[in-house]
Structure formats: C-alpha cells, structure tokens
Design goal:
Helix content is 8%, strand content 37%. It is mainly beta. Strand 7 and strand 8 form a beta hairpin. The longest helix is centred in the middle third of the chain and has 7 residues. It starts with 5 loop residues before the first helix and ends in a 22-residue tail after the last helix. 36% of the residues are buried. Bound molecules: manganese (II) ion (MN). The site of manganese (II) ion has 6 residues, from strand 2.
C-alpha cells in the first residue's frame, strides 16, 4: 500500500492553513519505531485526533472525548482521512473558514508497538488489522501508555477505542482533564491564537 494523502490535500488550502504538506519529509525521525500522536483539536466540536504511523501515512480517528485510561470505558473513534507523516508534530491555529478551523496541540506522542492479531492469534500488520476492523497497539506515551484496542463496529467509519486491562490501566486517572498541556511546547489550546486573530 503506497502512501496516499490525496483526501487530505483535497480538503485543505495549504497556502492558507499552516498545516504541513505531504512529502516534505520534515518530521522527526529519532526512532525507527512507528509513532503515534494524540492531538487536541479545539474545532467547531472539541475532540482529540488519534493518529498511528502506518505504511507511510498517519491512520487517523477523531475521538470526541479523547482516550481513557479506564478499561471499562468505550470511546467513540470516527475514522478520518489519512494524514501525512509530517502532521505528527503539528501544532497551530487553522484559520477561520478553513477545513478544521481551530487550534491544535500535540497532547501526547511517542512510539507504539503493533499487537494486532488475526482470528487464529497470529500477528498481522496494522494495515491488515485496519482492513479487518480490529487493531491492537501498545502506546509509549507520556500520558497514555499500554495497550489500546480499536474496533470498528459499523461499516461507516465508526470505531471504539478501549484501554486494554494491563499494568498501565487506571480507572481513576483523567489525563484529558488533569494534563491539558502540549507535551511538545507546554501550551494549552487556549494559549494558541484564536482563528480570527490570524493574519492571512
Ligand atoms: Mn481534528
């Protein structure tokens, strides 16, 4: 599967938005491990975007309530268009009138390990898991860590994100509330310029 970010580019005017174009190669490569990011996105509806580096793109889901650390909590995750790898450390303000208008911070990021398996319990690539509608990953983040399962429950891009029960699960933590700062810059979304304040 070759990287295809055409849907990403179709939706955006990258002359107006500070979001990165695909193919610039301007993303950190401090590790050979695939990376993940959770970006807080204060858009028309506030949500968190979970993205996993898979086969040269970032497979992406919009998670309205963000990830939980409680294994008993199921979080809706709506699959969105593949994003370019360069998006993994994007923080900034998407201007008024542009797709995704609003503010974005890198709420958490790190590497991950694929734990996806087929019905026989054999390891499969994340791509294959995506096609089958079930992915399991072990996240190495600062706020979210350990196993997470993504399971598609409807054909129309609706998935559930659930913390797996392991040493990193904790029913009492609320990191989306108690740890709102960007792991990249220490800023909260409220500290970025509002869309209307941008020069264009
Ligand atoms: Mn978003």
């Amino acid at each position: 599967m070759s990287p295809d970010t055409s849907r990403y580019r179709e939706r955006r005017d990258l002359d107006r938005s500070p979001e990165p174009d695909a193919g610039t190669g301007e993303h950190r490569t401090e590790s050979d491990e695939p990376r993940f990011v959770v970006q807080e996105h204060e858009a028309s509806s506030h949500h968190y975007d979970l993205r996993l580096e898979v086969s040269g793109v970032l497979k992406s889901w919009a998670v309205p309530k963000g990830p939980s650390t409680d294994p008993s909590v199921k979080r809706l995750a709506v699959a969105t268009e593949d994003h370019p790898l360069e998006y993994v450390d994007f923080e900034g303000t998407i201007p008024r009138g542009e797709y995704g208008e609003g503010r974005v911070i890198v709420w958490d990021t790190g590497t991950y390990e694929n734990m996806s398996r087929d019905d026989e319990g054999e390891p499969i690539p994340v791509d294959a898991g995506y096609g089958r509608g079930h992915i399991a990953v072990w996240l190495h983040g600062q706020k979210v860590a350990g196993g997470y399962a993504l399971t598609r429950f409807r054909p129309d891009d609706q998935w559930l994100l659930v913390k797996m029960d392991d040493a990193e699960s904790d029913a009492r933590r609320r990191p989306t509330s108690t740890q709102p700062e960007s792991v990249q810059t220490g800023r909260t979304v409220d500290e970025l310029p509002e869309p209307g304040d941008q020069e264009s």
